[in-house]
Amino acid sequence: MDIKTLVPIEFSRKITPMAMKDLLWNSFDNTKVLISTVTQLDNFNCKNYSDGCFSVISYADRPNTGKQPVADDVVVDFAFKDGMRHIAESACNHDFILAGHDDEVIGSWKLNHPAMVKAYQASLPKPIPADDKGWPTSERIDNIARNESDGDHYKAIAAITTLEHLGYTHNGGEQWKPPLGKQSSNDLELKRLAEFAWYNKLILDGENPVDCAIREMAEKHDIDIRSDEDKLRDAIDLAIDEANLGLDNIDRGLIMVALLASNKLNITTKGK
């Protein structure tokens, strides 16, 4: 079903209540629903949590009660008692009187569906174009800032946080000022790395972005990035942990050499 040919039920009810034999589209399970019972009619004419799933495919004829049922500018289709039909005319074009010749008396009417689709589309918020440089206009920026229902509202908050974290400042106007001083490509890459790590909560307490990147990449690709001192300390600790597993004199000699080396390198181990 082409949603551009549908009229949301909430919009339609603002013009006139739903009627028997109106045909609806249920987007939840992609089915057509014909209003055929009083219970259905009552439900569809009340505000309901499921309203967002239903749209009008076509309108059924409504009987003329002798009173104009919709506003003057609403476009409707008329059916006269003599069988003639007048399509897509404003409601004020004819009197809804019940007396007179058959060619003068309206037997039934219904909302003109193409006109309702057009009216609904016209009611939607209009996108505010960017200026000639591609930047959002001030009006658009104000709307984003003030309207939490705007899809870009929280993106804007995240963008502001990002810019402030990178040292940018805003002193009015449509653009932020970068930090003072010319930045090298390495500085920019480092800042991108810092921002990525910061937002993804990768940086450990007391860790800088470079160390974070090295650690993350090493873990991902199973690379041993320990220094020689770290490897020696870990080897000593492992040997001490396994000291009661029947180490021979060669093992003990290696541990002694390692301990002497660690003392020279000022490495703290479990054995010291």
Mean pLDDT: 76
- Helicity, in percent? 25-40%
Strand residue content? 5-15%
Give, in order, the helices and strands.
Answer: EHEEHEEEEEHHHHHHH
Structural class: alpha+beta
User: Uncertain regions: pLDDT < 50 for 5+ in a row?
Assistant: none
What strand order characterises the main sheet? 1-4-2-3
Distance from N terminus to C terminus (CA atoms, Å) equals 77 Å
What general outline do the C-alpha atoms trace?
Answer: elongated
Per DSSP, the total helix count is 9
Structurally, the number of domains stands at: 3
Q: How can the largest sheet be summarized?
A: 4 strands, antiparallel
Give the total of beta strands. Answer: 8
Radius of gyration: 37 Å
